[in-house]
Amino acid sequence: MKNFFNISSGEGRKNDFKRLAAAWHNKGISLASLGRYEEAIACFDKAIEIYPRHAGAWYKKGISLHSLGRHDEAISCCDKSLEIDPRCTEAWSVKGISLASLGRYEEAIGCYDKAIEIDQRDANAWYNKALAEEKAGRPQEAAKSYHKFIELAPLQYV
């Protein structure tokens, strides 16, 4: 039987495990897109078990947890992702979304600000920041953030 993962030793073996972790991660993304969040979480957990420094698997697990209303767990996953890659704008945004869902709007705004600091053209971060600013009773700032979103919005939004 052919060894599809070509498990070897040394650096080659490390790359094989990264590829296997990526496959579990990608399966999790597919399942999450179908709304099968518990199954997606199991896939992300498998990816993390194989390659614990997989920042994407951590924050994608956070997205699925958020979708299930498990916001504190989602925030913890995003924190883990950010320990690995502090410049991961997606993890900052997902953390912000979960914080906002808990009514922690000022903390959420701080997360969106981090994402924007890393990538000023992140339209979604501007939009989510505007929503949180509205909820925090900061309509003037929200208007500015909405303006920035509209300026940056991809064509699919207009």
Overview of the molecule:
It is built from 8 helices and no strands. The N and C termini lie far apart (53 Å). Helix 1 runs parallel beside helix 3 (55-67) and helix 5 packs antiparallel against helix 6. The protein is an all-alpha fold and 158 residues long. Helices cover 75% and strands 0% of the residues. It has helices spanning 10-33, 37-50, 55-67, 71-84, 89-101, 105-118, 123-135, 139-152. It has a single domain (10-157), classed as Serine Threonine Protein Phosphatase 5, Tetratricopeptide repeat (Alpha Horseshoe), CATH 1.25.40.10.
Question: What topology emerges from the helices and strands here?
Answer:
Layout: H1 10-33, H2 37-50, H3 55-67, H4 71-84, H5 89-101, H6 105-118, H7 123-135, H8 139-152
Helix content: over 70%
Distance between the termini: 53 Å
The CATH superfamily is Tetratricopeptide repeat domain
CATH architecture: Alpha Horseshoe
Q: Percent of residues in beta strands?
A: under 5%
Number of extended strands: 0
Class per helix and strand makeup: mainly alpha
Tell me the major beta sheet.
none
Mean pLDDT rating? 92
Reported by name, the CATH topology is: Serine Threonine Protein Phosphatase 5, Tetratricopeptide repeat
At a glance:
The protein is mainly α and 158 residues long. The protein contains eight helices and no strands.
Which terms summarize this structure?
single chain, 75% helix, 158 residues, 8 helices, disordered N terminus, mainly alpha
